[in-house]
Every structure is written in structure tokens, then in C-alpha cells.
Amino acid sequence: MEQEYYVCTGCALLCDDIEIEVTDNKLSKVNNACLKGVARLKECAKPAECKVDGSNVNIDDAIKEASSILKNAPNPLIFGMGNSTTGAQKKAIELAKRTNAYIDDTSSFCQGPVIEAILGDRIRTCTLDEVKDYADVIVYWGADPSNSHPRHLSKYTYFPRGKERQRGWEEDRTAICIDVRKSDTAIICGDKFYQIPPQADEELIDALVSALSGKVPKVSFGMGPKKILELANLLKKAKFGVVCVGLGLIYSLSDIEPLVKLMNKLNDVSNFHLIPMVGQFNMRGFDHNLHEETGYINRARFQESGVEHGPQCSIVELLRTKNVDAALVIGSDPMSSLPGSIAKELLDIPVITIDPCMTMTSKKAKVAIASVTSGAECGGTAIRMDGVEVEFKPMIPTDSLSDEEILSRIMEAL
Amino acid sequence: MTNALEIYQLLPKTNCKQCGKATCMAFGAALLSREVTIDDCPPLKEDKFRENYEKLSQMITPSGEASESGMIVHTEKCIGCGNCVVACPVNVAEDPYGAGSGKAPTNENVILRVEDGVVRLSNVNQCRRFGKNKIMCNGCIVTCPTKAIEFV
């Protein structure tokens, strides 16, 4: 019998080789997925319930209340959508247009700058399938995929055999890790681990650029020129290199320019590509969708006169300056991911959440709407961390509404 | 991985023979291969060795279901990343286009696969550490980020 494979929506790797066993319309076994994927696809520990002001209501009342909040707010914010399908994201953008809302997603304090540079053709990228077939040098910079994307090394980058990499990881590939601490990924990289102090990424980039130009590299921390030249030589000799950029690097750079400079230099002397280590399974999808619609990937505001864009439209700035009067949070938990001083502003405005699980945000929200888990109970499409569109089908049937259906119902009620 | 000498350092080193072994070093080696348990050493249970006893109990995790090739998978540490599944030379030979290429295993001959987020063993007799021609293959140990795989 031909095995039927499903797609895991645990992270932006969107592993497409998942086998499942279903009993009584529930997932009893999820095979080949990592623990992170299994945890997301199987039921959440605390499933969400539809609530208004803390008391249970049916979904129709919750949707009615949500739409009246959005209707009466002159400056609403729509945030999240990293865990929603492309269809739901398009609906959310449409809703933002209808309500003249601010719209932002987690990329505004995550991989946004890198995705912007990739979409603007400033940085060369490639797909993970190309990495599997051709890559011989893989650099993890400020990333620890062993914890964030457990199958990154085993499915695409380091361990698998590919077209031109038939002899496996021991002979054909080199994995390099640059990080501030000896992470689990650094342990796998062994002696190809380069430890740097926090905030020293830009300095190392400058040193690498000079090493690649044939100058003697110098850094103020305890890494000798010999060690940096050794790293530069590894990069120079690569036939097909890839830099997987994690949040560790993004957070330590004040802007993306040093990274662009390094990638250009690497491409002068060698052949290098960049892949952002996107977290939520369809965060990159949202950036693509909004880019298609407005030319910006995040931090936008729809107005009658056009689209406003800038740091003043990011969720952090909006909450800090108290410029929003309602928030619709879809499949995200800003209350726990934002700094406390910013997150507490969410307590002062009416918040609507759409989420399959109970989160810190939904507990404090005025209206909480329960949706289904995308990928387990509803299908759709999503964009993988490398920009490839992946289609997925539901694993189990459900009567509940998906994010997309809930957003359509809110729009009807407006 | 723990070695016999590290264990020996924590034993009483009196060669009292109460455990039935000739020396403490022999007991340490037996402990490593899970032939005996920490409680088989009576002096270790005395008060003055309490600290060593606790250290040893952290070092020597119970063998649980050690397979015939001596492999122990600590399921509580495993995160299901599948590094071992793809790196295992037997898996690659048996299933080059499935497990060997990073995808789901496509046949039943593989010895490691991920089920429900943790690695599971099958066809243990195919492991390179099994049988009379065994070699000290460590493909699955060195690739494990959480040190969830151990051989006794």
C-alpha cells in the first residue's frame, strides 16, 4: 500500500513526510516528526474556549462581540498570523483594509529585516532542497536548530545524502556554528564551533570580510587571527555554502547592512546563500502576502489615503505610545513574547484572540475565540522558511471553525 | 559517555569484595555494563559515601530496556530530531532514498526510526555493534544533540 504522508506545522521547516495513526478522530500517533511537531499536532494541553469577559459563550456571540469591538475602534491592530494558513492571512489583510487597521506580525521583532532583504533581492538565497543536494559548507550563526528546528540538520542540511553529496556528513559536508554559547548544535559541529562574546557579531563579520580580502583580521575579543583565517578559508573553499541566520545574529546587529556586506564578499570569493531560521510555520508566508499587497512585509497601516509603513506601525511602538485602541491577535501570544513593560499595555485595551490553545494573551483577552490547529484539523498552504510554498491537507475531521472561516464570519458581521 | 575510571573514582576503593567482585575497579566496569547496580556495593550506602552515591546514581541511569546490542535510548532526553536515523550507516544502506536522504524510512529494515517524537529501535541484530563481527560504530551517539543514546 502506498504510504500517505502529511505535513507537520510545528515550525517553518514544514516536514512533508509525516505518517499518522488516527483513532476515534484523534491523532493517536504522529511518526517521523520531532517532539516539537508532535506536541503541536496532537492536542494542546489547554484547549481554548470561546469566552467574552471571562465567561463561556458560544462561538456566534464571540464573533459578534469581536466584530463590534473592531467596528467601534478607530485605530485597531491586527497581529500574529504566523500560525495561520495563507488563506487566513489574506483574509486578515482584507479585514485590516476594511477596518483601516494597523497590521503587524512577529517578523517585526524577529526575522523581518532578513526576509525584507531577500524579497528585495539584496541577499542571495536558495531552497532547502538545493542545500540537501549541493551544500558542502553550512554555517549556523546565532541559531540552535537542535532546539528550534530539530529536523533542520537531519532532513536538509548536514546529515542527509543528496545528489552531489552522496558520501554523507563525515566526508562531504562541514557544519560550522558561530554562537555566544556552546549550544546543542555547537556540540554536533565539534571543533567547527566559534564562540564569540555577546554583541560581537558585527566585529566578527568585519574581521571575516577583511580575512576574505586577504588582510590580517583583528578582533578585540580572544579569537586569534589564525582561527579567523581558518574559518575564512573554510568559507572560501566552499562549492555551495549556506548561512542559516538565527535570531542571535539578527538581535545583535543594529541593521542588516553588515550581513549584506558579508554575503556580497562571500559571493565575490565563493558561492554563498542565506536562509533565515523562521520560527512559526507560516510567518514567512504572511510577509510574502503583505509584500504582494502593499510592498511592505510588516508594520503597515491601511488608510483611505494609502498604506502607511514604518517603525511607528510596529506592535512594540504602537503599544508603547498607546496608539491603538483594540487588538486582534491571531495564533500568537504577545503577552508572553513581548517585554513585560510593553505587554502590559494590552491589558488596557480590548483584545480579541483567535487561537486553538489557551495562551497568556487569551486568558487576559476580552474576547477569546477557539479555532482549530492549522495542519492538524484544517488544510491550506504555507510558505517554508526558504520561501517554498507547501500545500497541506487536514489530518482529522472537525466541526470547529478554522482561522480563515472565523475571519470571514467577523467580516460578514462588520 | 561515562567511563569505568570515572566510576572507580567515586567508589570506596577499599577492594572489600563484599559485592562479590575482586576489586572496586572490576565492580566499576560491571556497573558500566549494567551487570550490577549501585546498591550491590554495601559500603557505598554508608553515610560518608552519600555524596558519591548520589553522583553515581546520576551517572548510571537505569538500563531499562537496553537492547541486545547494548543500546539504550533515554526517551526522556530524546527530542526526535532524527539525526541518528539519517546518520546510521545501516539505515543508509537499507534505505538510501528514505532514511539515508533525510526523509521518512520507506521500509521495515531500518534499525532506527522516530515514532511519536522519540526514536525507536527495531531489527537490532542488524546493528554494527551486534554479533561476533561487531565494530565500535558510534554514528548514532556522536550525532545526538541531547546525548539520549548510550551503549553499555
* Helical residues, percent of chain B: 25-40%
Q: Which percent band covers the strand fraction of chain B?
A: 5-15%
Which geometry of chain B do the CA atoms define? elongated
**Domains of chain A (count):** 2
Which regions of chain A contain 5 or more consecutive residues with pLDDT less than 50?
none
The main sheet of chain A comes to: 9 strands, mixed
Note the run of SSEs of chain B as H and E: HHHEHHEEHE
How is the largest sheet of chain B built, in terms of strand order?
1-4
What's the structural domain tally of chain B?
2
The chain pair with the largest interface is: A-B, 35 and 28 residues
Structural class of chain B: alpha+beta
Overall, the morphology of chain A is globular
Explain how this protein is built.
The complex is a heterodimer of chains A (414) and B (152). Chain A is of the alpha/beta class and 414 residues long. Chain A folds into two domains: 45-106 and 287-377 and 400-413, Rossmann fold; 112-276, 3-Layer(aba) Sandwich (Dimethylsulfoxide Reductase, domain 2). Chain A has helices spanning 35-41, 59-72, 86-98, 112-119, 128-134, 145-148, 152-157, 168-172, 184-189, 201-212, 225-236, 247-252, 257-269, 283-294, 315-320, 334-337, 340-343, 360-364, 403-413; strands at residues 19-23, 26-31, 51-52, 55-56, 76-80, 102-104, 137-141, 174-179, 193-195, 241-245, 272-276, 300-303, 306-309, 326-330, 351-355, 367-370, 380-383, 389-392. Chain A has a nine-stranded mixed sheet with strand order 4-3-16-15-14-5-6-12-13. A five-stranded parallel sheet of chain A has the order 9-8-7-10-11. In chain A, helix 9 links the parallel strand 8 and strand 9 (193-195). The radius of gyration of chain A is 22 Å and the shape is globular. The model of chain A has no long low-confidence stretch (mean pLDDT 93). Chain B has two domains: 4-59, Electron transport complex subunit B, putative Fe-S cluster (3-methyladenine DNA Glycosylase II, Chain A, domain 3); 71-151, Alpha-Beta Plaits. Chain B is built from six helices and four strands; from the N terminus they run αααβααββαβ. Chain B has helices at 4-10, 24-32, 50-59, 83-87, 89-94, 139-142; strands at residues 71-73, 112-115, 118-121, 149-151. In chain B, the strands form two sheets. Chain B has a two-stranded antiparallel ribbon. A two-stranded antiparallel ribbon of chain B has the order 2-3. The longest helix of chain B has 10 residues, at 50-59. The N and C termini of chain B lie close together (10 Å). The mean pLDDT of chain B is 86. Chain A: InterPro entries: Formylmethanofuran_DH_bsu, Prok_molybdopt-oxidoreductase. Chain A: Keywords: Oxidoreductase. Chain A: This is Formylmethanofuran dehydrogenase, subunit B.
